[in-house]
């Protein structure tokens, strides 16, 4: 016969087993991909060999991600062929690189491009060049190659054990919350068409072309969470969505992100197509790698991979860039006369201070070297 003590012990153990996390399952085979840790540590640790040779080129682009390759594409289109792209990894592409399984290719990071807005003239130009935009890139609603148009449904959210269509949770909400969601949607549609007193769209892509009107810019003074509450958007589902959006685009919570930046996420995408709805995105099995390859083609023969830039010395009229070539440990110095006056963007990360720091977001340098000669390294 089971004693009371034994019974309670058995029930307690069963209950505990039910609460306990499932036995640790091992991860599926694979590896974490991304920028090389070894190179990052190399930059941090310093101790680079003194440059053993100096080469010169007209323009030096540091980093072969989408930014650097866009600069190369633009230069090539302007018939400037005296440039080099220095990329520390074995291949260019940065966050838009892709992998290949025996069955299908897949993106490592960036995986879609929203339909370009009317202001995104260069993106439209590139897409036309790649035959993804068919016909005149300047028309209001261009036609896009069907293979790149992502058919709906595009997004789902997993909540309370169920998948729901779209990003905004909608099951089991009361009428008041549904009303707020509807009102938020209408407000964002309104913002997509809003213009400042300078005639510019309030939230444009490229961001640079957004209105400078103080009425809109002052939204930079408060966090998105406050803007939501001030405008009667208190529903938890809306705050969840706003927080998801700012973390996705900026890596910060909606309590830490400016209302202007947060609203830009929702109101900037108003590109249209003749053969797709406005919220469609362009994508492919390899994510954005097709875009990267299209850009890289214009820099063919001028992309130097395995080239780690570890020091940039900027003088009044000159720039010197020190580079380490991978396993060979071959050091190189590019002596420079001028900083290019054109404001092209190169990599987002530059190695500064003898490789002890890696700065993000400061990579806007166009280096015009010495006598303007091109010299593949
Ligand atoms: C997970 C994830 C998903 C994303 N999804 C999308 C998406 O779907 N659509 C979208 O439009 N955007 C997306 N983004 C954002 C997008 O990827 C970036 O905005 C874009 O890749 C930035 O391009 P970049 O060239 O500036 O930087 P990167 O792609 O990071 O490229 C920088 C390049 O510089 C090189 N480099 C760095 N330091 C050095 C050095 N010292 N010397 C030499 N080379 C160096 C790197 O190896 C790299 O190739 C996503 C971002 C992430 C993280």
UniProtKB/TrEMBL annotation:
InterPro entries: FAD/NAD-bd_sf, TAT_signal, TAT_signal_bac_arc
Source organism superkingdom: Bacteria
Gene3D superfamilies, A to Z: FAD/NAD(P)-binding domain (3.50.50.60)
SUPFAM superfamilies listed in its UniProt record: FAD/NAD(P)-binding domain
NCBIfam families, A to Z: TAT_signal_seq
Protein name: FAD-dependent oxidoreductase
Species annotation: Candidatus Dechloromonas phosphorivorans
């Amino acid at each position: 016969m089971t004693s009371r003590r034994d019974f309670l012990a058995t029930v307690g153990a069963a209950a505990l087993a039910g609460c306990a996390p499932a036995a640790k399952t091992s991860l599926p085979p694979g590896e974490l991909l991304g920028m090389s840790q070894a190179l990052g540590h190399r930059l941090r640790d310093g101790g680079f060999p003194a440059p053993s040779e100096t080469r010169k080129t007209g323009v030096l682009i540091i980093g072969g991600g989408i930014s650097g390759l866009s600069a190369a594409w633009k230069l090539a289109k302007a018939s400037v062929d005296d440039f080099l792209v220095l990329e520390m990894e074995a291949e260019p592409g940065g966050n838009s690189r892709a992998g290949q399984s025996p069955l299908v290719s897949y993106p490592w990071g960036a995986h879609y491009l929203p339909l370009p807005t009317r202001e995104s003239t260069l993106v439209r130009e590139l897409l036309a060049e790649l035959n993804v935009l068919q016909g005149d890139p300047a028309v209001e609603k261009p036609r896009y190659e069907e293979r790149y148009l992502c058919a709906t449904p595009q997004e789902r959210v997993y909540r309370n054990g169920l998948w729901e269509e779209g990003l905004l949770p909608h099951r089991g909400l009361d009428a008041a919350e549904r009303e707020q969601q509807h009102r938020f949607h209408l407000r964002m549609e309104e913002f997509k068409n809003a213009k400042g007193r300078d005639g510019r769209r309030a939230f444009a892509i490229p961001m640079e072309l957004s209105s400078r009107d103080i009425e809109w810019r002052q939204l930079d003074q408060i966090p998105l969470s406050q803007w939501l509450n001030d405008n009667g958007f208190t529903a938890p589902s809306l705050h969840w969505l706003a927080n998801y959006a700012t973390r996705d685009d900026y890596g910060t919570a909606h309590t830490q992100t400016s209302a202007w930046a947060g609203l830009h996420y929702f109101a900037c995408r108003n590109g249209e197509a003749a053969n797709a709805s406005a919220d469609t995105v362009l994508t492919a099995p390899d994510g954005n790698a097709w875009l990267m390859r299209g850009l890289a083609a214009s820099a063919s023969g001028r992309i130097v991979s395995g080239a780690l830039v570890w020091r940039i010395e900027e003088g009044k009229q000159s720039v010197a860039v020190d580079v380490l070539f991978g396993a060979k440990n071959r050091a190189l110095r590019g002596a420079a006369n001028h900083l290019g006056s054109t404001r092209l963007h190169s990599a987002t990360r530059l190695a500064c201070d003898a490789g002890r720091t890696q700065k993000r977001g400061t990579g806007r340098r166009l280096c015009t070297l010495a006598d303007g000669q091109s010299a593949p390294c």
